[in-house]
Fold these 4 entries.
Entry 1:
Amino acid sequence: MNNKYLELLSPSRDLQTAKKAIESGADAVYIGGPAFGARSAATNSLDDLKELCDFAHLFGAKVHLTFNTLFYDNELDDVKKLLEELSKISLDVLIVQDPALFKLDLPKNIEVHASTQCLIKTPQRLKFYRDLGCAQAVLPREMSIDEIKNMHESCTDIRLEAFVAGALCVSESGNCFISEYMTNRSANRGSCAQICRLPMELLQNDKVIANGHLLSLKDNLAKEHLLSLINAGVSSFKIEGRLKDPAYVMNMTAYFRKLLDEIIEESHGLYQRSSKGSLNINFKSDPNKTFNRGFTEVMFDGDNSDMVNTISPKFIGPYIGQVQSVRYLGPDTILRVNCLHGIEIHNGDGLCFIDKNQRIEKALTGFRVNSVKGKDLIIRGRVRILNKEKLYRNVDTEFLKELEAPKAVSRVLNYSLKAVIEKDCLTLSAKDELGREASVSTEFVKDADFVHYKNDRLENTLKKRLNPNTNLEHLEILGDACDLYLPLSKVNALRREVLTDCFKKTYHRADFKEYKKPQVIPNWPEKEIDPRLCLNTITKDFYKEAHTDIGSLDNPKYKVVMTCKHCLVKTVFNKCIKDGAKASNLTLKIGPSLFKVKCDCRACRMMIVR
């Protein structure tokens, strides 16, 4: 598999966000369609998807459609109808989970990628999806660099995609059933209730030994591991966040665009960007300034310590300083703050602190700065806060203004244009950065009464851009305008025609792998498949053809609702059971529900069992 292309893949909740992601440097975006995506709150119309494809393809960027939920039998007709509609809008990629799709008619001229929901955690599973015709596999977020490298070396002819930023699921992706069990909202159906983000208690022998947001992981930020990921075989770098706003997506995309471009430049031609177009980023990207729960990347080293933020699953923001004094004036609170060097607080900023006297779910206390007068911050209402309290900023108004400015980001595709005037014919030829070419010609009749114009007027007409996202880099005119018997309006129409033809030509990277339905379903590499993943008859038939059994829900192993790399035992006892931690009789209390905590130290996994 050719891995010289490095792809930055950004999330998009809607058309506007997707365009901002591409203008910020994304080589591809992933987005939900009208239904069956793993974020039910992020759906988009077919018309918007078509417009997005046209915009992305200008730069050779790709559109990945999330079609990665499990289907019920009564939905299969709708699935088939939607697939037929999707075949008309020039999608690049379909991201899938339910294997029923491999038995249906998928759109032509696309790639199929195996979702992270497929839980491709072994080389055998990776080979299975390669043999199904998948061009790319989205790896589980909990994988280490060494595990990824082993996967790639065992199966080099399928591309690997890894998450490099955003939320981390505490459970193995596609193997989490706690939301469905507690709320009847299935993570495998795009409706995760985020149970892992709730406050909870860990009990031993019915005594509370820890509390807080015990399963709420920090966010991923793989800034130190990008080159290691590339060397391990990853070629697509995914930012999580399909429910995030445009400001978040722009900030994270611009940040990773810069990091990847530095690696590409230092590779001296070994690697290259997956799309084209010149970028203009008019803000300084900073992951700390938009939503995060604190950052970690320990999982890439095979570690599972320092993964959780037990204080809050909300955005706390960077530390800015300490409270120097507190005064109350009428209904208002007046704060004076010793800020860190270089920090300025502005009207509208959101500040917060950790109130240790509050209950867990209310420990994070926040307020808005109404106005700034000298060294004093004026806050409407009474804020109960002590001197020397540490303050954090989770709304930076000046930074948001930069991101929301009309010219915060822009991207243009460069092209060249050649005009040849000879005999009784004008020929215009265009070629863009992607190597796409087009040519149009028109004949004309010499007219003695025709009023000629000079070359500079012809040149000015040909220099006009087709749209704000295109840029004429080189213009060549062969011949003399005095020999051209065409009105400028006709020349202008020909210019639009040749550029439209050029930019709309299909472009595929050299590593494009069109999906082809397998003639024979390969064997599933394990003896049994989880029955909770088989919701329709086509899927059940698929696994029969794959020569595996569908397990019984009566089996105790299917009472496991979460399987986690994060370990509560290691977090609370500061060591593993195998190292002597006395961690028997553990119970996790989430709301009114009680779960057993079991550990498989050989596999370094913790199970939450109903």
Note: The mean pLDDT is 96.
Entry 2:
Amino acid sequence: MSEFKQQIEKAARRQRLFMLGFALLGFGFLLVFAGGFLLTKVTPIQVTPSEAARDADVSVSKGLAVYFQGSLFSFSRYPVVEARAPGFAAAERVIEPAEEGSTVQIALRELPAELRVTVTNMEEPINWFINGSPVSTAPSLTAELKAGTYLIRAEHPYFRPEEKEYDLARGDQVEDVLTLERASGVVRLEVTPKDAAVIFNGVAVTELPAEIELEAGKYEVSVTKDGYAPIEDVVEVTYQQSEVTRNYRLQMNPAYVTVSASPAGGRLTLNGKSISADKRLQLSASQKYYLRYAKDGYGFQEQEITLKPDETRKVSFDLSLKIGEVQITSDPPATVMIDGQPAGETPLTVRLPAKTHEFVISRPGYQTVRKTMALDADAVRRLDVILQTEEEVKLAAAKPVYSNSLGMEMRLFEPTSLTLGAPRSEKGQRANEFLRDVQLTRHFYVSATEVTEGQFSPFESKQNKGDTYPVTNVSWAEAARFCNWLSEKEGLPPFYRFNGGRYQGFNAQSTGYRLLSEAEWEWLTRKANRSRQTIFPWGDDAVIPKGSGNIADEAAKGKTPFYVPGYTDGHAEVAPVASFAKDKNGLHDLFGNVSEWVHDYYSLIPPPAGQVLRDPLGGSSGENHLYKGASWASGTLSEIRPAYRGSASQGSDKIGFRLARYIYGEAK
């Protein structure tokens, strides 16, 4: 083979090797590209708001990634995407690995428009308004606003307001200048008196009334006249108040007066108003004034004065003592105090300064009388007094019926005499009902009903039947403590004395609440409002009238040891208070329903023969207390008689109580 042919074949082999290498290189590149494409992450990018998205420019600011047609093709982690749009602030967004493949939003913030408005030739603050709302007071307006249309208004008191509308786009920077026109107005002046001198802003006004046309602004006014107090004023004309009217009235210069008065301690008045002596007082000139000085016991003096402008005058008053006489009598004779000092016993005649004095006429056991009387000079007055006992005064003021703080109706009684107990010949009489003559002298109040559970509950809960039922199962001491509690509640002195819960006695002079005495209870049921004393509340006949009260009737057969045959009251046991009609005294349930605790200790000692007991309250000590009256369980003749005397050491379901109280502390 020739050398040329060998060279040609050698060259062909090199070419085939080159082509083979190039093919292998291309194939490797394709393998790398395919592998890289498989590792690329595609993340959709969304720009908000929609107004920004239309013109947004999105680019990759950091990382190996490509943005194309709304999607980001990233070849590395944590690429940074930047978005821009006209009228919006640029924003960057780091794409986290967890966000790759999901839609990522880039929110652009809208750029505000900047508006600056000034006013030509104005250095004073302007009142600026945007769309009718005040925003600032300054020489110029600078504001950042959202895109939109705005009405800008500039105001100054001395210029006509100017308004202009601006249509602002995002990111706009607008500057503008407004020109305000000076406002004008009129000032009208009138002056009294007419010949007063008027200076307006430094220039004399020669013709009045005056009408001055001028630019808006502040102007000084001075009005003067000899003998008159000057007037200095400032008037202001604005675009809102273009017409100003002033009617000046000069006041004459004041006058002065100094008043001295003797003796001291009286009342000095100027036109009826109190003033102080020895002080310089300012008065209006050419006006009438009336000065008056008066002192008790000295009479008075008056002066009329009229002063000239700038005049100073001294006025003096000098009063002399005046004497009056009073003759004082009283029935019965009593002690007299005058102005807090002892004056003697009535009848009494005294001479005193002719003024008002306080007279106090008093006598032990009688209501003190206080009188105020003015004595006249050289005249004789009389003071005649009839004294009343304290009991008479309190009785005169006492109401026949009143309602206390718990709503109880309290009725007033004037007691008389009676005979307690019953003779041995009376059917049903018991040995403890010995006869006793009693004289009751003290007026007293009695509750119209027995105390109810509802009335007792504020003191202590005893709810068994209901608010309208009489409270029972109450011991005598509990009833007495309730009386004291109610007395203190109403500001009355307690009747009973307790020491640490232990009963210690009572105060017979107290007007506080208490239990009825045995004598009072029996007087109410047998003698009060009756022509004579009776055995029963209705009379002397043992037959019980229909509807008299709640006792052991036919319905109690089998429930109580005894019952009253043929009598029906409609209640097998205790009934609500006032279920039966009032008795002659206007009281309910003195006969029947529940027996009632009375004040007295139980005693079996008869009084001495011929003794009359006066307002008896029983002994000061004992074991048991008395209760009086029949109850719903009473079915014998002995028990239904008011003379019946029961004793107990504790409460039961058959015993309640009612209230009483004296109206004065001492017997007649």
Note: The first strand starts at residue 41 and ends at 48.
Entry 3:
Amino acid sequence: MRELFAGAKVMERLPKSLVLFRDYDRKKLVSDVIAGITVGLVALPLAMAFAIASGVPPQAGLYCAIVAGFLISALGGSSTQIGGPTGAFVVVVFGIVARYGIDGLFMCTLMAGAMLVVIGATGLGTAVKFIPRPVVVGFTNGIAVIIASTQIRDFFGLKVEKVPGEFVARMTILLHNANTFSAADTSLAVISLLLIVVFIRYVKKIPGYIVALFAGTALVVTLRLPVATIGSRFGGIPSGIPAMHIPTFRAGLLRPLISPAITVAMLGAIESLMSAVVSDRMSGDRHNPNVELVGQGIANIMSPLFGGLPATGAIARTATNIRSGAKTPLAGMVHALTLLMVITFVAPMARFIPMSALAAILLVVSYNMGEWHEIPELLKLSRLEVGTWLVTFLLTVFADLTVAVEAGMILAALVFIHKVTATTTVSEVTQEYVREGYAHILQHKEIPPYVVIFRIHGPFLFGGTDKIQEILSRLGDLPPIVILRLRNMTAIDATGLQALKHLANEIHASKRELILCGAREQPAQLMRQADFQEHVGCGNVRANIGDALNRAKELYPSMTKNSSPEMKWGRRSTDMRPLVSG
């Protein structure tokens, strides 16, 4: 038994590539190769566009996608995640390059990589969950706005030599030079934008980014359009395998780069683990956060040695990878090798790629990464959480991303303290209180075999919401109706609501029903503000456990008619342990 336990512990520390290749077969190989080539072609324009937006040559993005993309798949803890340069780093990288130069960026990336290795190796990968939803949405919104603003010059072909790094100064310069726009650049950008939107909406199997890139390049070559291209701006892209080069070490930069390195490490951890969660939901797998961060760290140590940018998990490319049929990390390695083949044999053609087409691609990326659908949901919550989001967003756009995240975390901590203290009460136990409690007790209530009851005990706030996984991990074996008892849940926040929303979506996707019952004053009020009943179902939010059981009796007959014959469950009336605790 001890040997088995030790073996399980070792398996938990291994990269997914080693674990999943044990039962590899030809069918998986074909699926992985097709997916890898597909996502490699999708990554081609994105890698160049992110590099250019960050203020560095386009090959820096490609080298990052090749080196870091391969290592993240080979050494990470997710089976289908794709790594490489992402929009989250654009703002930070641009600021680092402007202030410390390209060698400063490479030093900062190395430092961030070492931090990520330490975070993952010491088991602190799960600490990323302590960043609340309003802060994540705030800086994601802000980054999207900044990326979009950096693409205005190339989209319209404005004659501006250098675009300022600060948002207000940038927009002022662009508005001042609005009359210098180029009709050719603007037309090509609009065509590229329309192609991307049309293919994303109507021809989903063909990546719109690739179509826009090749169509724009073909128009430049055939019509000899007078537009800015990679060749006119950067002189093209070097062909061949990227050479290893040790960055110039400047001891004087170590101290000032600590803060940017922490920002890069935290952004890399957040983005990669968010992407890994998306990968889990789409593929049905479960990633190892600590192994993933070690892999991300090693990738960020190696990327600058080949002239690459910081890397993290890329949500859109990960989703493309899974939709294309990826089964194992080999798909991510093939994606990197595909890019290597492209720059080895097709690099000379890259000089014709128009900057306006890349600007159109990044505008779509910035819109998609903005999490705009989260804003209406956040605005329904408490003023404290809305304020946390707004401060993080405004500081990201008008100040600095590091300052924004620090301020957002401080505000989130204050909101956390406020919610916990506000739900702490001292009151007399009266006869009325005892009578009201009868409706909530489970004793002497019959729990039918088609119902399972879970309960949340304590505050359900950011940092503890991952415990809802205890329900999701058993979902396939649960009966058709799940009751979640909230009588002992003292407080909830935006991150907790997000977790319950995800739980409801997963339960409904499995053809089951979720009933919530017994919510106390603060959680009940916040759920009403957020119109949470829309996510659970009309009539599925009940006052107490008795009402919830009655609702289950109403739902069960219709579910029996519609359920598939393979859905089976066992009686669970005695399984009442607190599987979700605060």
Note: The first strand starts at residue 83 and ends at 84.
Entry 4:
Amino acid sequence: MSTNTIVILVAFVVYMGMMILIGALNSKQSNNEDYFLGGRGLGSWTAALSAQASDMSGWLLMGLPGAIYVAGTGEVWIAIGLLIGTVLNWFLVARRLRKYTIVANNSLTIPSFFENRFHDKKGVLKIVSSIIVIVFFAVYTASAFASGAKLFANVFGTGADDKTAYMIGLIIAAVVILVYTLLGGFKAVCYTDFIQGMLMLVAILAVPIIAYIGINGDLVGALGAKGVADPQGYLSLMKDSNGNPITAVSIISNLGWALGYFGMPHILVRFMAIKSDKEVKKSRIIAIVWVILSLGAASFLGLVARGFLNEDLVASGKSEVVFIKTIQQIFDGNIVLVFIGGVFLCGILAAIMSTADSQLLVTASAVSEDMYKGVIKKDASEKSALNVGRIAVVVVAIIAFVIALNPESSVMGLVSDAWAGFGAAFGPIILLSLFWKRFNLPGAVAGMITGFATVVIWDYIPFGGALLKDTTSLYSLVLGFALALVVAVIVTLITKKPSAEVEEEFDKVNTVEI
């Protein structure tokens, strides 16, 4: 093992040790509300950075820069869509969801909120939504594990095609994330996400600026020197890397990522945990500034790296490691530089861990609070419910581990599928639940199933030997969200209106101060 590798390994070990220590220090929880929502006591900075760090994942530092590195500025439409979604989510959903979940029988999870919102005595919504959480979080967590494995394989091995290094990285990423999630619960996850959010931001801001200085600020010239046929087209929002116009379907699909935010349980649960309305307003500003800076820098990195890197990642098919390669090329030469590079590489680890831990915790809450305590054994003790939740974390992590075993796993592809699934199934239901008094249980069930089924059919079931997402180039989230919304509204209007009790609760949210 080379000196450089040892120095980077030291940085990784110190960082991961800190995360486990935070989990251990927050290992005492008296009940499910403490474990899954931190006692609804999050401050503005912790809530904001935890929400956004858990949102972006390894996708921010690997998937997005990699997509832009290959296709050019035309892929920035995804970042624009995500920024729009973040702003709308904080302004439309955050404050009202926090209040409504308290009014609706102190709901601790999204599935329990659905049940309490509609007074669903049979628990249909809770069961359906819990199954959706488990299915798509297995896929989503797999993307984080795959990111971690690729990071380790490229730093300590010969690349993602180094199967031994990939496997070791996959095991390490899974074990570390599992340990501090199991130990500390929601508070540990949020505190680590706060640290990880800050580290991610520093890394993603510093690296592209240094690389830009490295090409003397001449991006067009650097792109041309590295073989980009049409540098001006590559830097255009309306053209692809070959100079061809971006299609309307492509722009709509990329902007459609905004719709996903309304249905992301691991983000929504942060809103539920904020301690006051006042803190929501502060968190909103912090989160939006963080997202503008991080998405802008990640997009800029993808463009600059195409002109900066000595290695052609398009030809090698390794575009998703663009951030890793850029750090390695910049911070080389002496031990101090290599250690700084190791710290910045921990930024990628931070992005990975901050999302995976949140997803595992939400999965645990769906199994423990919603399925076990809510349906299977309603008189279960807090201790037994917590233990079931921890077992669920391990099981889902194992499933995600298996999904991520393939070194060719695309971080962008896995995230895209999970994002579409949650956005289409939950997004319309969340919005209608919060803002439409007439919305009822049959409409919610029909809309949720429609959104879920649309994404599954569009992304996973081949027709004529090809998937619909490939033949149409339309992102399944856009279609799934639209169909779910329409079906939910129609079914609600043709069925019985909610009970007076449900409507009273809705009105109470408009007036109560919590």
Note: Residues 163-214 form the longest helix (52 residues).
